[in-house]
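MODEL INPUT / OUTPUT PAIR
PAIR INDEX: 1
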Amino acid sequence: MTETRENRIKRMKMRSMRRGIKEMDLILSAYAERSLDAMDDSGLDLYDALLHENDQDLYQWVTGQAKTPEPFAGLIAEISQTFQK
Protein backbone atom coordinates (compact mmCIF):
# COMPACT_ATOMS: atom_id res chain seq x y z
CA MET A 1 0.00 0.00 0.00
CA THR A 2 1.40 3.39 -1.01
CA GLU A 3 1.45 6.24 1.47
CA THR A 4 -0.22 9.42 0.21
CA ARG A 5 1.80 12.64 0.16
CA GLU A 6 -0.51 14.12 2.80
CA ASN A 7 -0.09 11.14 5.14
CA ARG A 8 3.65 11.06 4.55
CA ILE A 9 4.01 14.71 5.56
CA LYS A 10 1.80 14.17 8.63
CA ARG A 11 3.92 11.19 9.64
CA MET A 12 7.16 13.14 9.22
CA LYS A 13 5.80 16.13 11.17
CA MET A 14 4.82 13.82 14.01
CA ARG A 15 8.21 12.09 13.89
CA SER A 16 9.88 15.52 13.94
CA MET A 17 8.19 16.50 17.19
CA ARG A 18 8.57 13.15 18.95
CA ARG A 19 12.34 12.70 18.99
CA GLY A 20 14.58 11.35 21.72
CA ILE A 21 15.71 14.70 23.08
CA LYS A 22 13.66 17.85 23.63
CA GLU A 23 16.05 20.12 21.73
CA MET A 24 15.59 18.10 18.56
CA ASP A 25 11.81 18.05 19.10
CA LEU A 26 11.81 21.84 19.03
CA ILE A 27 14.27 22.25 16.17
CA LEU A 28 12.83 19.65 13.81
CA SER A 29 9.17 20.36 14.51
CA ALA A 30 9.70 24.07 13.72
CA TYR A 31 11.48 23.18 10.48
CA ALA A 32 8.87 20.58 9.50
CA GLU A 33 5.98 22.99 10.02
CA ARG A 34 7.65 25.66 7.90
CA SER A 35 9.07 23.51 5.13
CA LEU A 36 7.64 20.06 4.46
CA ASP A 37 4.48 21.11 2.61
CA ALA A 38 6.55 22.94 -0.01
CA MET A 39 9.14 20.17 -0.53
CA ASP A 40 9.26 18.04 -3.64
CA ASP A 41 9.48 14.25 -3.41
CA SER A 42 13.28 14.13 -3.41
CA GLY A 43 13.38 16.69 -0.58
CA LEU A 44 10.89 14.62 1.40
CA ASP A 45 12.98 11.50 0.76
CA LEU A 46 16.07 13.22 2.13
CA TYR A 47 14.23 14.57 5.18
CA ASP A 48 12.73 11.13 5.82
CA ALA A 49 16.23 9.63 5.75
CA LEU A 50 17.42 12.33 8.15
CA LEU A 51 14.69 11.36 10.62
CA HIS A 52 16.34 7.94 10.94
CA GLU A 53 19.58 9.48 12.21
CA ASN A 54 20.55 9.55 15.89
CA ASP A 55 19.37 12.64 17.82
CA GLN A 56 22.75 13.27 19.42
CA ASP A 57 24.37 13.32 15.97
CA LEU A 58 21.64 15.56 14.56
CA TYR A 59 22.02 18.02 17.41
CA GLN A 60 25.77 18.24 16.90
CA TRP A 61 25.30 18.79 13.15
CA VAL A 62 22.64 21.49 13.61
CA THR A 63 24.67 23.36 16.22
CA GLY A 64 27.91 23.07 14.26
CA GLN A 65 29.67 20.96 16.90
CA ALA A 66 30.36 18.21 14.35
CA LYS A 67 30.74 18.06 10.58
CA THR A 68 27.54 17.06 8.80
CA PRO A 69 27.80 14.07 6.43
CA GLU A 70 27.59 15.20 2.80
CA PRO A 71 24.15 13.84 1.89
CA PHE A 72 22.61 15.97 4.66
CA ALA A 73 24.83 19.09 4.54
CA GLY A 74 22.40 21.35 2.65
CA LEU A 75 19.38 20.18 4.62
CA ILE A 76 21.13 20.66 7.96
CA ALA A 77 22.16 24.18 6.87
CA GLU A 78 18.48 24.98 6.14
CA ILE A 79 17.36 23.51 9.45
CA SER A 80 20.00 25.52 11.30
CA GLN A 81 18.80 28.74 9.67
CA THR A 82 15.18 27.98 10.55
CA PHE A 83 16.15 27.37 14.16
CA GLN A 84 18.03 30.69 14.34
CA LYS A 85 15.04 32.72 13.04
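PAIR INDEX: 2
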Amino acid sequence: MCKDFIDGLVSVIVPVYNAERYIRETLDSIIGQTYKNIEVICVDDMSNDSSREIIKEYESKYSNIKSILLSENAGVANARNIGIENARGRYIAFLDSDDLWLPEKIDKQIDFMEKNGYCFTFTGYRFIDSESQKLNTIVHAKPELTYEKMLRHNAISCLTVVIDRYIVKEIRMKKIHHEDYVAWLDILKQGHKAHGLDELLALYRTRRGSLSGNKFRAACWTWNILRNEEKLGFFKALYYFSNYAVINVYKHFLSK
Protein backbone atom coordinates (compact mmCIF):
# COMPACT_ATOMS: atom_id res chain seq x y z
CA MET A 1 0.00 0.00 0.00
CA CYS A 2 2.85 2.41 0.81
CA LYS A 3 4.13 2.25 -2.74
CA ASP A 4 0.95 3.97 -3.95
CA PHE A 5 1.71 7.12 -1.94
CA ILE A 6 4.05 9.86 -3.13
CA ASP A 7 6.89 10.28 -0.65
CA GLY A 8 7.20 13.82 0.69
CA LEU A 9 3.82 14.89 -0.66
CA VAL A 10 1.38 16.36 1.87
CA SER A 11 -2.29 15.89 0.94
CA VAL A 12 -4.44 18.54 2.59
CA ILE A 13 -8.09 17.57 2.99
CA VAL A 14 -10.46 20.57 2.99
CA PRO A 15 -14.16 19.77 3.54
CA VAL A 16 -16.31 22.61 2.24
CA TYR A 17 -19.91 23.52 2.97
CA ASN A 18 -21.31 27.02 2.40
CA ALA A 19 -17.91 28.56 3.09
CA GLU A 20 -17.92 31.43 0.60
CA ARG A 21 -17.01 33.96 3.30
CA TYR A 22 -13.79 32.22 4.37
CA ILE A 23 -12.66 29.68 1.78
CA ARG A 24 -10.40 32.08 -0.12
CA GLU A 25 -8.50 33.00 3.04
CA THR A 26 -8.20 29.32 3.95
CA LEU A 27 -6.87 28.26 0.55
CA ASP A 28 -4.49 31.21 0.46
CA SER A 29 -3.03 30.06 3.77
CA ILE A 30 -2.30 26.64 2.22
CA ILE A 31 -0.90 28.03 -1.03
CA GLY A 32 1.28 30.36 1.03
CA GLN A 33 3.05 27.53 2.88
CA THR A 34 6.83 27.56 2.71
CA TYR A 35 6.63 23.79 2.17
CA LYS A 36 5.61 23.49 -1.47
CA ASN A 37 5.16 19.74 -2.01
CA ILE A 38 1.44 19.94 -1.25
CA GLU A 39 -1.77 18.87 -2.94
CA VAL A 40 -5.09 20.34 -1.82
CA ILE A 41 -8.27 18.28 -2.08
CA CYS A 42 -11.40 20.39 -1.62
CA VAL A 43 -14.47 18.23 -1.08
CA ASP A 44 -17.61 20.30 -1.47
CA ASP A 45 -20.52 18.80 0.46
CA MET A 46 -23.26 20.16 -1.82
CA SER A 47 -22.88 23.84 -0.93
CA ASN A 48 -25.69 26.13 -2.00
CA ASP A 49 -23.68 29.35 -1.93
CA SER A 50 -20.77 30.32 -4.19
CA SER A 51 -18.25 27.94 -2.56
CA ARG A 52 -18.15 25.62 -5.58
CA GLU A 53 -17.40 28.45 -7.96
CA ILE A 54 -14.61 29.69 -5.70
CA ILE A 55 -12.87 26.34 -5.36
CA LYS A 56 -13.21 25.72 -9.12
CA GLU A 57 -11.60 29.11 -9.67
CA TYR A 58 -8.68 28.12 -7.44
CA GLU A 59 -8.44 24.74 -9.16
CA SER A 60 -8.07 26.46 -12.53
CA LYS A 61 -5.41 28.78 -11.14
CA TYR A 62 -3.31 26.28 -9.16
CA SER A 63 -2.31 22.89 -10.53
CA ASN A 64 -2.05 21.32 -7.07
CA ILE A 65 -5.67 22.05 -6.10
CA LYS A 66 -8.33 19.46 -6.88
CA SER A 67 -12.06 19.86 -6.31
CA ILE A 68 -14.50 17.03 -5.64
CA LEU A 69 -18.12 18.15 -5.93
CA LEU A 70 -20.51 15.83 -4.12
CA SER A 71 -24.05 15.32 -5.41
CA GLU A 72 -25.61 15.13 -1.96
CA ASN A 73 -24.89 16.54 1.47
CA ALA A 74 -23.55 13.75 3.70
CA GLY A 75 -21.60 15.57 6.40
CA VAL A 76 -18.03 16.48 7.23
CA ALA A 77 -16.89 12.95 8.12
CA ASN A 78 -17.94 11.66 4.70
CA ALA A 79 -16.24 14.62 2.98
CA ARG A 80 -12.98 13.99 4.84
CA ASN A 81 -13.09 10.26 4.06
CA ILE A 82 -13.57 10.94 0.36
CA GLY A 83 -10.65 13.35 0.50
CA ILE A 84 -8.45 10.73 2.16
CA GLU A 85 -9.46 8.11 -0.42
CA ASN A 86 -8.42 10.44 -3.25
CA ALA A 87 -5.20 11.64 -1.62
CA ARG A 88 -1.89 10.66 -3.22
CA GLY A 89 0.46 11.91 -0.51
CA ARG A 90 2.41 10.02 2.08
CA TYR A 91 1.24 12.59 4.59
CA ILE A 92 -2.36 13.53 5.36
CA ALA A 93 -3.29 16.91 6.85
CA PHE A 94 -6.66 18.51 7.52
CA LEU A 95 -7.89 22.09 7.34
CA ASP A 96 -11.53 23.12 7.61
CA SER A 97 -12.77 25.75 5.20
CA ASP A 98 -12.78 28.61 7.72
CA ASP A 99 -9.53 27.90 9.57
CA LEU A 100 -6.01 29.07 8.74
CA TRP A 101 -2.40 27.95 8.82
CA LEU A 102 0.60 30.15 9.45
CA PRO A 103 3.14 30.03 6.59
CA GLU A 104 5.71 27.67 8.15
CA LYS A 105 3.21 25.19 9.62
CA ILE A 106 3.76 22.25 7.28
CA ASP A 107 7.49 22.92 6.81
CA LYS A 108 8.15 22.80 10.55
CA GLN A 109 5.85 19.86 11.15
CA ILE A 110 7.30 17.62 8.43
CA ASP A 111 10.81 18.44 9.66
CA PHE A 112 9.71 17.56 13.22
CA MET A 113 8.33 14.23 12.01
CA GLU A 114 11.29 13.27 9.84
CA LYS A 115 13.92 14.15 12.44
CA ASN A 116 12.20 12.12 15.15
CA GLY A 117 10.54 9.33 13.20
CA TYR A 118 7.04 10.37 14.33
CA CYS A 119 3.95 9.18 12.46
CA PHE A 120 1.21 11.27 14.11
CA THR A 121 1.81 14.88 15.09
CA PHE A 122 -0.09 18.03 16.00
CA THR A 123 0.78 21.62 16.87
CA GLY A 124 -0.31 24.53 19.00
CA TYR A 125 -2.96 26.92 17.72
CA ARG A 126 -4.79 30.12 18.55
CA PHE A 127 -8.47 31.05 18.49
CA ILE A 128 -9.67 33.77 16.13
CA ASP A 129 -13.15 35.26 15.73
CA SER A 130 -15.42 35.55 12.71
CA GLU A 131 -13.50 38.66 11.57
CA SER A 132 -10.12 36.90 11.82
CA GLN A 133 -9.22 38.87 14.94
CA LYS A 134 -6.99 37.03 17.40
CA LEU A 135 -8.58 35.97 20.69
CA ASN A 136 -6.82 35.41 23.99
CA THR A 137 -6.82 31.62 23.90
CA ILE A 138 -3.64 29.86 22.79
CA VAL A 139 -3.79 26.07 23.00
CA HIS A 140 -0.40 24.50 23.56
CA ALA A 141 0.53 21.11 22.14
CA LYS A 142 1.22 18.46 24.75
CA PRO A 143 4.54 16.63 24.23
CA GLU A 144 3.07 13.15 23.86
CA LEU A 145 -0.40 11.62 23.90
CA THR A 146 -1.38 8.00 24.32
CA TYR A 147 -4.86 6.49 24.10
CA GLU A 148 -5.23 6.73 27.88
CA LYS A 149 -4.26 10.40 27.92
CA MET A 150 -6.60 11.22 25.03
CA LEU A 151 -9.56 9.79 26.94
CA ARG A 152 -9.07 12.56 29.50
CA HIS A 153 -9.36 15.32 26.94
CA ASN A 154 -9.49 15.82 23.19
CA ALA A 155 -6.16 17.61 23.17
CA ILE A 156 -5.70 17.47 19.38
CA SER A 157 -7.41 19.88 17.02
CA CYS A 158 -7.99 18.59 13.50
CA LEU A 159 -6.45 21.61 11.77
CA THR A 160 -3.09 20.91 13.42
CA VAL A 161 -2.73 17.22 12.53
CA VAL A 162 -0.31 15.56 10.09
CA ILE A 163 -0.27 11.75 9.77
CA ASP A 164 2.29 9.54 8.01
CA ARG A 165 0.44 6.86 6.01
CA TYR A 166 3.56 4.76 5.64
CA ILE A 167 3.07 3.89 9.31
CA VAL A 168 -0.59 4.63 10.14
CA LYS A 169 -2.41 2.37 7.72
CA GLU A 170 -6.00 3.34 8.45
CA ILE A 171 -7.36 6.88 8.78
CA ARG A 172 -11.12 7.08 8.74
CA MET A 173 -13.75 9.35 10.24
CA LYS A 174 -16.94 7.81 11.58
CA LYS A 175 -20.24 9.56 10.89
CA ILE A 176 -20.59 10.75 14.45
CA HIS A 177 -20.22 14.11 16.20
CA HIS A 178 -16.60 14.77 17.21
CA GLU A 179 -15.59 12.41 14.41
CA ASP A 180 -11.99 13.59 14.54
CA TYR A 181 -11.67 12.74 18.25
CA VAL A 182 -12.91 9.21 17.56
CA ALA A 183 -10.43 8.90 14.67
CA TRP A 184 -7.51 9.92 16.92
CA LEU A 185 -8.59 7.43 19.57
CA ASP A 186 -8.78 4.69 16.93
CA ILE A 187 -5.22 5.46 15.78
CA LEU A 188 -3.86 5.56 19.32
CA LYS A 189 -5.57 2.28 20.18
CA GLN A 190 -3.37 0.67 17.52
CA GLY A 191 -0.37 1.44 19.74
CA HIS A 192 0.74 4.64 18.02
CA LYS A 193 1.49 7.81 19.96
CA ALA A 194 0.72 11.42 18.99
CA HIS A 195 3.57 13.91 19.41
CA GLY A 196 3.04 17.62 19.84
CA LEU A 197 5.11 20.38 18.28
CA ASP A 198 4.43 23.18 20.75
CA GLU A 199 4.53 26.10 18.37
CA LEU A 200 1.62 28.34 17.42
CA LEU A 201 1.19 27.37 13.76
CA ALA A 202 -2.57 27.42 13.12
CA LEU A 203 -5.61 29.62 13.71
CA TYR A 204 -8.93 28.09 14.74
CA ARG A 205 -12.03 30.14 13.98
CA THR A 206 -14.80 30.15 16.56
CA ARG A 207 -18.18 31.56 15.57
CA ARG A 208 -21.42 32.10 17.39
CA GLY A 209 -23.99 29.56 16.30
CA SER A 210 -21.41 27.02 15.11
CA LEU A 211 -22.01 23.41 16.15
CA SER A 212 -18.70 23.14 17.96
CA GLY A 213 -19.47 26.40 19.75
CA ASN A 214 -22.45 24.85 21.56
CA LYS A 215 -20.76 23.64 24.74
CA PHE A 216 -23.69 21.58 26.00
CA ARG A 217 -24.04 19.65 22.78
CA ALA A 218 -20.29 19.13 22.56
CA ALA A 219 -20.32 17.71 26.08
CA CYS A 220 -23.13 15.32 25.15
CA TRP A 221 -21.16 14.17 22.10
CA THR A 222 -18.09 13.50 24.25
CA TRP A 223 -20.12 11.50 26.78
CA ASN A 224 -21.59 9.44 23.93
CA ILE A 225 -18.09 8.67 22.63
CA LEU A 226 -16.81 7.56 26.01
CA ARG A 227 -19.81 5.35 26.71
CA ASN A 228 -20.92 4.05 23.31
CA GLU A 229 -17.85 4.22 21.08
CA GLU A 230 -15.12 3.42 23.60
CA LYS A 231 -17.44 1.20 25.68
CA LEU A 232 -16.27 2.54 29.03
CA GLY A 233 -18.15 1.68 32.19
CA PHE A 234 -20.22 4.44 33.78
CA PHE A 235 -17.79 5.45 36.52
CA LYS A 236 -14.72 5.24 34.31
CA ALA A 237 -16.49 7.34 31.68
CA LEU A 238 -17.51 9.82 34.37
CA TYR A 239 -13.88 10.15 35.49
CA TYR A 240 -12.67 10.97 31.98
CA PHE A 241 -15.67 13.21 31.28
CA SER A 242 -14.96 15.24 34.43
CA ASN A 243 -11.42 15.89 33.17
CA TYR A 244 -12.85 17.00 29.83
CA ALA A 245 -15.36 19.36 31.46
CA VAL A 246 -12.84 21.13 33.68
CA ILE A 247 -10.33 21.65 30.86
CA ASN A 248 -12.91 22.97 28.39
CA VAL A 249 -14.55 25.37 30.82
CA TYR A 250 -11.12 26.84 31.53
CA LYS A 251 -10.15 27.02 27.84
CA HIS A 252 -13.32 28.76 26.69
CA PHE A 253 -13.32 31.13 29.66
CA LEU A 254 -9.92 32.39 28.51
CA SER A 255 -11.19 32.94 24.96
CA LYS A 256 -13.72 35.57 26.06
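PAIR 2 NOTE: The first helix runs from residue 23 to 31.
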